Amino acid sequence: MKHTPAAFKLQRETVGCSQQHLADLLDIGVLQIKLWEKPDGKPAPDTAWRLLEALMIEHETMISTALEQIHEQGSKDQPITLMYYRDKNMFAAQHPVEDADGWQMANTRIRDIVARLTAEGYEVNIVYPTE
What we know:
By secondary structure, the chain is mostly helical. The chain has helices at 5-14, 19-26, 30-37, 46-73, 88-94, 103-119; strands at residues 80-83, 124-127. 16% of the residues are buried. The model has no long low-confidence stretch (mean pLDDT 92).
């Protein structure tokens, strides 16, 4: 994929990473991310692209692993229940890690998993952890 501002934004959004979260990961200001995503903006540096590519690999690996587990344990006769997070606080309560901003990335993975399972004919129920 050619490294364009639109491609940068697409990859960032594909993994569910907000501009602020990506800026935090790169230890830069969010304005820099915004400038890289402007049509006439300065191109993102290779370090930013490499981070996005690593996040894409992590994203696909986690989805593939989850789908393998569901396929091994699940049945199309029984609904699959997956958790979705309403906000950062709900995610942090379930996952006590330093990266509480990861909730958006977790939700993006869940959306991708739901789309793939639904396409395969599974019935999927989505719940908040408190339900």
